[in-house]
Design goal:
heterodimer; A: 3 helices; about 60% helix; globular; B: about 110 residues; mainly alpha; 4 helices
């Protein structure tokens, strides 16, 4: 169970922001093409950075709290989830604040 | 300066330049953006705090590669620049893509 910690933390981030999409009416998950295009550049650059930083030893990932799947250089596969989930949380926040302020852009 | 804070600050500056030089989305003039970033930083504390806590870290940093400054819990100071770069880059692209392919017809085209 401990080895799922990183993934469970990411799952918690998805769950806590999901009501913004389901109950609040913003459309981020439901705009898959726009979402993919928005995520892709940062995803690629931050993953390259992450692969390099892990390989060169700037950071590393606990064997106790990750599932153990590693990319080249030792980067935890959970990082790929991080670079998807955290930006989506940010976009859901942005669109929700816009909605509260009365000018939903994408809904 | 150690490598991680150097790259984190460089990434943050690069993202600002991306907007100012190329994208011109006006995101930085949007009050919703700054309010969203404040909210995201508030939620970053428990999430990143959990990832980096020295008592049971999920992510471990080589001390000489970080600033060594952790104003809140064990989160390295440069992590806030890193978060700014990641979140802002995605928000900029979101607005950029949304402007080019609107999900709803502009108002002036709906009016008779």
């Amino acid at each position: 169970m401990d080895r799922l910690q990183y993934l469970l933390l990411m799952a918690g981030c998805v769950l806590i922001t999901l009501p913004l999409e389901l109950g609040f009416g913003v459309r981020v998950w439901r705009s898959p093409r726009r979402l993919a295009l928005a995520l892709l550049p940062a995803f690629v650059l931050f993953v390259v950075w992450d692969l390099w930083a892990t390989r060169t030893g700037t950071w590393d990932f606990s064997r106790d709290y990750t599932i153990g799947l590693r990319l080249p250089g030792g980067m935890a596969v959970e990082e790929l989830v991080f670079f998807t989930v955290i930006p989506v949380c940010g976009l859901l926040t942005l669109e929700s604040v816009r909605r509260v302020l009365g000018r939903g852009v994408s809904s | 300066m150690p490598i991680y804070p150097t790259l984190a600050v460089a990434a943050a500056i690069a993202v600002v330049l991306l907007e100012v030089v190329a994208l011109h989305t006006d995101l930085f003039r949007d009050r919703a953006y700054w309010m969203s970033m404040a909210i995201c930083y508030a939620f970053m504390i428990p999430v990143d705090g959990w990832l980096t806590k020295h008592s049971a870290p999920i992510v471990l940093y080589r001390p000489q590669d970080t600033s060594g400054i952790s104003p809140i819990w064990d989160i390295p100071l440069e992590e806030y620049a890193y978060a700014f770069a990641l979140l802002t880059a995605v928000m900029l692209m979101w607005d950029h893509v949304g402007r080019r392919t609107p999900t709803r017809a502009p108002v002036e085209q709906v009016a008779p």
